[in-house]
Specification:
Protein name: Phosphate regulon sensor protein PhoR
Oligomer: single chain
EC number: 2.7.13.3
Organism: Psychromonas aquatilis
Enzyme class: transferase
Main location: membrane
Number of strands: 9
Strand content: 15-25%
Bound molecules: adenosine-5'-diphosphate
Shape: globular
């Protein structure tokens, strides 16, 4: 039946024997697609009222009566609306990335230019915390693929490093050729992550420390976006971390994608 979606898995059984497991995943996939579609629609609908709210907050900001209570209230309104906007943006990115079974585009991505943009944003963000940020990029290493997906993966990792590294820490970003393909790595001297959390980090809304992550402006969706983006490049995220010392997030884009 061509309408059915089947999933095949081969597992070791006895010596020299394999077990083939065939699962009908049609209903599961349909439900997953309805969930994705629902999230995409809701986030899209939330965008307009949020933009309207931001406009009114700007008007309030221009007309405060020098009342500290009122100023504080407007500041909180501004902060929370900005948080909601990033959540909506991240939800839309995740739905978009989840929707495509494969990459949407196979175009040459000038990764060096992309990383220069991310570096400028990172330096601006890291200034307040006096972070030392170093990008070590091979300018000739370009790949073929969809820029949105690669940008999402790289920028989420860099901005997380900034978010979870205390003042005066350092962050190093590497983009270089290795025998297996193109290697990207973000190292930080931040909080680090305990081993039991590492396996769960790419789940939607999973956070090690709920309140800390919220305070730093996190949405809990960054690493699931990274995971989905990377799956389109047939690769996955490696996470190594030592609690209190720092973390290293890396991936290798297979050499078939190198331009
Ligand atoms: P968030 O928006 O909360 O940062 P993510 O999906 O990007 O969500 O990350 C999930 C969780 O992983 C974060 O809440 C944080 O606890 C942890 N995390 C991510 N990156 C780092 C990092 N560089 N150092 C320490 N912890 C991290």
């Amino acid at each position: 039946n061509s309408d059915k979606l089947l999933e095949f898995r081969v597992m070791p059984y006895a010596k020299n024997q394999r077990l083939l497991i065939v699962r009908d995943v049609t209903t599961y996939r349909q439900m997953d697609e309805s969930r994705r579609q629902f999230v995409a629609n809701v986030s899209h609908e939330l965008r307009t009222p949020l933009t309207v709210l931001q406009g009114y907050i700007e008007i309030l900001e221009m007309n405060t009566q020098q009342d500290p209570m009122q100023e504080k209230a407007i500041e909180m309104l501004e902060q929370q609306t900005t948080r909601m906007c990033s959540l909506v943006e991240q939800l839309m990115t995740l739905s978009k990335i989840e929707a495509a079974p494969t990459l949407d585009f196979y175009e040459t991505i000038d990764v060096s230019a992309l990383l220069t943009q991310i570096e400028h944003e990172a330096i601006a963000l890291g200034r307040k915390k006096e972070l030392v940020i170093k990008f070590n990029v091979d300018p000739s290493l370009a790949i073929v693929g969809d820029e949105l997906q690669l940008r999402s993966a790289m920028s989420n990792l860099v901005f997380n490093a900034i978010r979870y590294t205390p003042d005066l820490g350092s962050i190093k970003v590497i983009w270089k050729k290795v025998p297996e393909g193109a290697y990207f790595c973000v190292m930080d001297t931040g909080d680090g992550i305990a081993e039991e959390h590492i396996l769960h980090l790419t789940e939607r809304f999973y956070r090690v420390d709920e309140s800390r992550s919220r305070d730093t402006g996190g949405t809990g969706l960054g690493l699931s976006i990274v995971k989905h983006s990377l799956s389109h490049y047939d690769t996955q995220l490696n996470i190594e971390s030592n609690l209190g010392e720092g973390s290293q997030f890396s991936f290798i884009i297979p050499k078939t994608y190198i331009d």
